[in-house]
Amino acid sequence: MSRKEKRLKRLLGQPKNLRFAELERILLQVGYVRDRTRGSHAVYVKDGYPTLTIPVISPVKSYLVKQVLAAIEDLFDGAL
Question: What CATH architecture is 3-76?
Answer without folding.
Answer: 2-Layer Sandwich (3.30)
